[in-house]
Amino acid sequence: MYLDISSNKALPFTKQAVGAAVWNHFKGTKKHRGNYYDKSAKNLGTTADTVIEDFKMEFISNVHSLDEGKSRPFAGLGFTEKGYVVIKTPTSPTLMNGGYSVLQMCSIVVPQKVDRCAQDATTVGAFTEFALNVIVANATVSQEMIENVLLDQALDYLT
């Protein structure tokens, strides 16, 4: 079983501007697994698990799991997430002529269960819904932060 979560957003910016904003958001500057710090990442080079092409970036994360305490309701449950960001020209002539780009964010989430974990279907379903909500919230925040950077750059350009 897997969950496929995707979003599409038309943005009034060029593919190059959107690509730069997306790259800066995900490369690690002031960001580490969703937490913000004042210092920037020291090594911003690409690694073996990052693929960059003219139209796509691929991010593969490690397994995320909750606290393994025996009294925890989701002990022994976790998930693996694989995310993609695609930036492309819209198919609508109106949006294409208006200088828009389409930002597509996709995540494939695979819930995982440790063999020794004896959880019932209700608990596994609740964890799956929890994981889905976390991924959707993270994607929404990332998309909003990318939009905010683009809007700030546009306002700075006008002044």
UniProtKB/TrEMBL annotation:
PANTHER family: BHLH DOMAIN-CONTAINING PROTEIN (PTHR35796:SF3), HYPOTHETICAL CYTOSOLIC PROTEIN (PTHR35796). This is Uncharacterized protein. It comes from Phytophthora kernoviae.
